Queue: 4 jobs
Job 1
Amino acid sequence: MSRRFALLVNPASAGGRALDALPKVHAALDELGAEHRTVTTRSIDHAYEEAKAAVAEGETVVALGGDGLLRPLAGALKGTDSALAIVPSGRGNDLARVLGIPKEPGEAARVAIQGQERLLDVANVEGTPYMGIASFGLDSDANRIANEAKVVKGNGVYVYAAIRALAAWKPATFSVTVDGERHEFTGYSVAVGNSTAYGGGMLLFPDAELDDGKLDVMLSKNCSKLRCLVELPKVFRGAHVDSDFTEFLRGEEIEVSSDRPFAIYADGDPIGATPAIIRVERRCLRVMAPA
């Protein structure tokens, strides 16, 4: 059966990178004789509705944007026979990186046709889906700074934001209950991941699996700001897992709270706030990956 494709394009992604990629995607699909149509998304809600319409038509949805666009598409496509394909066109592109999807738009479009379907888990914060890593605490401040940054471009914005956030940080107390087992600590942040990477290639959970029905949890505990700064580069190679100031857990239902309110960010955007319950839905989303 030949696939038909609905291309959903976020025009604001990475300063227009998705729009720049579109001609190469069209060319690749045309070369392979694939039927396709294109929709420019206006909002998260619009992207969700267009993905639902694609499901009704039996189309494969191709996301041209960043990790933030994948959230509403995952919500629309999970539990259906329609698959999601990704042309990485955002700032971080972490899920595409983890899946091994090529950066070049034409090559990524070929994966949509010639790749294989994988069934992936989808996590959610109080019902709002995400594919990568949800985090809060110091990460809440860093994400906000990164989203507001105008001068710093590319993946460097995440390092810039982390340093800015760290300078102003005051320790918080967190409560994290993993499948009924409670952990309380004072420190920097909590992260709950379905995938391995966030922030443009930070390997927060090197051993995480996208389809194991489990969420990986990291507790970032108290240490001096100088020590935290020294530890930060380790995240890019996953070496922080041996730190005395991190604890790793794994479970299906994660209850989180904090002694002051924090926005919970996932895939670059705020999708909830503490207190919250984070859950995982196992192997419910079809995603095209390299064969």
Job 2
Amino acid sequence: MQFYVLASVLLLAATGIALVWFLRRRLSPLQELAAIAGRVSTRSWEFVPPAAVLRTTELAPIALSMEELLKGLQLAFERQRRLTGDAAHELKTSIAVLKSSLQLLSMAPRSAEQYEAGLEGLLLDSERMEELVSRMLTLARLEEAPVELRESCDLQPVVRVVAERLRPLAELKQVVLEVSAAEARAVAMPASDAELLCSNLIVNALQHSAANGRVSVVVQTLDGVTQLRVADRGDGIPASALPHVFERFFRADRSRSRASGGAGLGLSICKAIVERSGGTIHIESAVGTGTEVTVTLPARPTSA
């Protein structure tokens, strides 16, 4: 009996030691993964799963998912950081313009007409700053707010309403605004976003069209896809600038931004609206020929 008791104790001890060794060996990749993940922060996004983790069947999917998640978070943080920096730069420029205008008015006594002209310029700069802040808030809402897929609208009446609203601007610019809105199916997009999308694209085309030019707007549904095309015969966009036109605060010709009041957010807002609805937006342009923007949206199936 003493032999069996002693043998059992020794066997249990050996089993316990073997089990501890086995668990430590199996858990070492997990501990290594936890150590690497613990070093990730907003200042250091480096996360490379070790080979031992990738060789472990149970841990490999988790490590790869964490890697993809952190890549997405890094892109989001970098995008927000760029937005903050660009917005601060734009607002700083607008504030500097306001300050210099005020200093110019106070440098010497002026007539009532000169003060009135100066105040009109200050008011215009304030409105431009207000428009910049409004567009920034709109872009933040589109990128952060959850998508309401239940909302839908028909682009045909939206395009016609927006075109009629912008016709005085077209007449002022001496540009012919043509609208061809055939019967189209509804798309998964709130009416307010559709109106903002159409307005931004048409205003962009009008602002970059020369006198006696022409802007055409076409809406149609083909093979279950609704397309919105806005084309102008303006100056066009250089090929080097085309890959950047959807970036925030990007302007191919910065010398015209103050005259037109643009802040380089219009196309960024359009892209955010389209992507929220599961669509795509594409620009084709050539210098001296014009620009065409094509928005492709999946049409909602008609109810039986």
Job 3
Amino acid sequence: MNAVGLIYGTITVGALLAAESAQSETYIETVGAVVIALVIYWLARSYAEFTGERLERAEPLRFAALGRTMLHEVSILAGAAIPLLALLIWWAAGASLGSAVTAAVWVSAAITALIELAAALRAKLTGLELLAQTALGVLLGVLVIAMKLVLH
């Protein structure tokens, strides 16, 4: 699994939901808009990666190669799945859309911090190095939460 895509997907869905105005949308509109935006982001990221490589190598467009790039980048959608699942669970539980969006934004922030913690632990960091590296993930998560606070 492409870890880069997982991280992009997690942060992107958090930012999308942070910008969401729960007062004027419904659950269906919110989920639909987020899914469409994520698919557009996945396609754009795949196309940009593919086209950049073709430009560097002076190669023509080959749809099979584009398909391989899209498959490699599909982890963007996987990274977005957990925060989106949190939104759906809150919906199923009967929560207000505003509460569900807030929960999903916090889930996105937490996952971002946990990914950085996992990377630090995998690198066998300890002490201040572990703390500093984890702080980067926390900072990114806090920025997503801050975006929600500023916009709403």
Job 4
Amino acid sequence: MGFYGKPAERTPIISVRLADDTPVATRTRLEVLRTDTPSFTALVEARRNRRDEWYQASAGYIDLCNVPVPVRAPHD
């Protein structure tokens, strides 16, 4: 669950850089599903009203962290 029993097991974040702050040639190329599309709306609705066997009843709502935004490497 993201917790470590011993401090020695922790991995510190040394630095962070935004892709916009790196040269274009060194950026990882990714395609991200736009959130203003019917496809994204359908994805959110599917997650909101899941029908998997694990769920006894559909919740009818969704938490922000439960909406994975699809990302893929471009097919060149």
